[in-house]
Amino acid sequence: MTTQETLENVEKALSEIRPFLESDGGNIKLLSVEDEVVKVQLEGACIGCSVNQMTLKNGVEATIKKYAPHIQQVINID
To answer: Which has the least CB within 10 A, 4, 37, 55, 57?
Structure first.
């Protein structure tokens, strides 16, 4: 998979999960994809939310891996 394909697949995954974040007053922005690590920034109500790490792992990371299985980790950059 090319870097461009990976970026497109990660964006598709974020588009799938974004409505759930927005319904809680939050959002997510893709910062970069480096090797097998995706860096994102949680926004709005997601900042400082007590369950944001669970959301990141169980929601965002799982959805991204569905579209781009080679991704190993998703990291939130504050």
So the answer is: 4
Residues in the chain predicted with pLDDT less than 50, given as ranges, are none
Helix/strand/coil for 32:
strand
Q: Which domain holds residue 49?
A: 3-76
58: helix, strand or coil: helix
Q: How many domains does the chain have?
A: 1
Whether the full predicted model's pTM is greater than 0.85, yes or no, is: yes
Distance from C-alpha of 9 to C-alpha of 62, rounded to nearest angstrom: 13
* Sheet with 26-34, edge to edge strand ranges: 26-34, 37-44, 73-76
